[in-house]
């Protein structure tokens, strides 16, 4: 496998490095603020009320949609991707599912 070497950055004094770092930090902070604003918009997206009565059949018999999710008022849906020729799910989707924490919220 051929690799191409990327040129190394220039060598500068500590003072020049600090100036460059401070310029980069300004851009990083702007990016963080923009991402925070976008995340706030996402949290304000409207919800969709599930009006249809779904029945799920399992080892404990028939369960309603509300019972299936322990009476919680909200459900987060994550689209886990599979391709027809894959033996396992999407690597990124698998990582997200594995990394999810307990999202139980007390009312």
Describe the protein's topology:
Layout: H1 14-43, E1 55-58, E2 61-64, H2 65-68, H3 91-99
Antiparallel strand pairs: 1-2
Would you kindly provide a written description of the structure presented here, covering whatever features stand out?
By secondary structure, the chain is mainly alpha-helical. Helix content is 40%, strand content 7%. The chain has three helices and two strands; from the N terminus they run H-E-E-H-H. The chain has helices at residues 14-43, 65-68, 91-99; strands spanning 55-58, 61-64. It has a two-stranded antiparallel sheet. A hairpin with a 2-residue loop joins strand 1 (55-58) and strand 2 (61-64). The radius of gyration is 24 Å and the shape is elongated. The mean pLDDT is 86.
Structure at a glance:
The chain is mainly alpha-helical and 107 residues long. Helices cover 40% and strands 7% of the residues.
Attribute tags:
107 residues; two-stranded antiparallel ribbon; elongated; mainly alpha; 7% strand; 2 strands
Order of helices and strands: HEEHH
Q: Average pLDDT, to the nearest integer?
A: 86
The percentage helix is 40-55%
**SSE class:** mainly alpha
Tally of separate helices = 3
Summarize the main sheet: 2 strands, antiparallel
């Amino acid at each position: 496998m051929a690799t191409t070497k990327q040129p190394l950055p220039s060598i500068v004094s500590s003072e020049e490095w600090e100036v460059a770092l401070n310029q980069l930090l300004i851009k990083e902070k702007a990016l963080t603020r923009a991402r925070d604003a976008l995340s706030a918009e996402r949290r304000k997206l409207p919800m969709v009320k599930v009006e249809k009565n779904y029945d799920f059949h399992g080892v404990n018999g028939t369960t309603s949609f509300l019972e299936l999710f322990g009476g919680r008022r909200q459900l987060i849906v994550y689209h886990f991707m599979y391709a027809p020729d894959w033996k396992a799910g999407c690597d990124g989707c698998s990582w997200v599912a594995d990394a999810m924490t307990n999202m139980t919220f007390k009312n």
